[in-house]
Amino acid sequence: MTKIITKKNFTEEVLNSETPFLVDFWAPWCAPCRLVGPSVEKLEEHYQGKLGVGKVNVDEEAELAERYRVMNIPTLYLFKDGEIVDKMVGARPFEDLVRTVDKHI
Predict the structure, then answer these.
(1) Are strands 3-4 and 52-57 parallel, antiparallel or unpaired?
(2) What is the CATH number of the domain that holds 91?
(3) Start-to-end Cα distance in the chain
(4) What ranges in the chain are assigned the alpha helix state H?
(5) Using CB atoms within 10 A of its CB, is residue 81 exposed (0-12), middle (13-18) or buried (19+)?
(6) Could you list the mean pLDDT of each consecutive 10-residue stretch along the chain, which spans 105 residues?
(7) CA–CA separation, 51 vs 17, rounded Å?
(8) Count of domains for the chain
(9) Which residue range(s) make up the domain with 63?
(10) Which 8-state DSSP code applies to residue 43?
């Protein structure tokens, strides 16, 4: 199940993750976010423990969105060892997400 990421659990869940961690910055009113959402959730199952996946609702966590300079949504950041190693903006098909993640697994 995709984790809900907040400023309270961001460090523990994302920055301190032992595996690469994909963070989906999204909002419920955003149509492209709703399109990419199922693909993001499918990634966690696809990688079976090799990738963490979480979602940040930018309406509820504006501070996190600002900290990571999220200007458009959906924005997906891939973190590894506490650092951003890749970024994707906009709705992407599942295959594109897999290609990007595969570079860092």
Answers:
(1) parallel
(2) 3.40.30.10
(3) 20
(4) 10, 31-47, 62-67, 94-102
(5) exposed
(6) 94 97 98 95 93 97 97 98 97 96 95
(7) 9
(8) 1
(9) 3-102
(10) H
Could you give the C-alpha distances from 2 to 44, 56, 69, 71, in angstroms and in order?
7, 11, 22, 23
Three-class SS state of 48: coil
SS3 of the chain: helix, strand, coil, percent, to 5: 35, 25, 40
Q: What pLDDT does 2 receive?
A: 86
Q: Tell me, what's the pLDDT at 91?
A: 94
The span from the CA of 51 to the CA of 55, in Å, is 14
Angle at alpha carbon of residue 91, lines to 34 and 27, rounded to 5°: 40
Catalytic residues: 30, 33
- Judge contact between 44 and 95, C-beta under 8 A: no
pLDDT attached to residue 75: 98
